Give the backbone structure.
Amino acid sequence: MNLFLFAHQDDEYGIFPVLEQLVARGEPLAVAYLTSGTPDGRISAQRNAESVRVLTHLGLTPEQIHFPGAELNLPDGQLYQHLQQACVGVLHLLEDGTPPTRIFTPAWEGGHQDHDATHIVACYLAQKFSCLEASRQFPLYHGQGLPGILWHTFLPLTQNGPAESMRIFWRQRWRYLGYCLTYHSQWLTWLGLYPPYALNILTKGEQYLQPLNLDRLRAAPHAGRLLYQRREFCSQEQFVFHTATLIDRITR
């Protein structure tokens, strides 16, 4: 079973082509969101519905879409403080089903602290279910080599290993651009995300996937200050303090 782990309702935009391809092949899959999508941990029916709508357009059924982060009231922006709960939440939804044979997760890239926290959870589960080699990470955004709060979109970090590329057909590109306009509750976020997303998908049109590497968890995703530090969402010291126990468990 293919398990997709996302931090937020809308993170699926980073891997639309893979989701669509697996659905077309008839492969079993499940999607799980690890935060509530709100800063206070409350359930956002609107955010959940927006992602369900997009995923059903890609061919998924509502039964394949899960919100453990919302059920556990895990706040957007603070997933790194609740890794144990997130792991338990995903394990609970897997109890009565097929264990994952491949996990897809946001890359270890320092763009958003919740994305990196989701990556840690994915590494833990991939190790637990012996599917590390088959699992993949996908880039969303990061600030390596850029000043201030500027970021790269869908650019794999070379430190994460060799990147597999998948061409996105033109008919898909236009549909994906349309899907990203339906996250109405996040219009302010997408005001910043949409222009570079559109530029990237129209000029490059590539989906990148990279392997998971447990050794990468022992160091920051890249040299210099990470994007979420520059945006003052979370300090590196805070992130390391709260994630060290699980990372040590994974990598020891």
Q: What stands out?
A: The two ends are 27 Å apart (CA to CA). Residues 187-203 form the longest helix (17 residues). The longest strand covers residues 206-211. The chain has nine helices and nine strands.
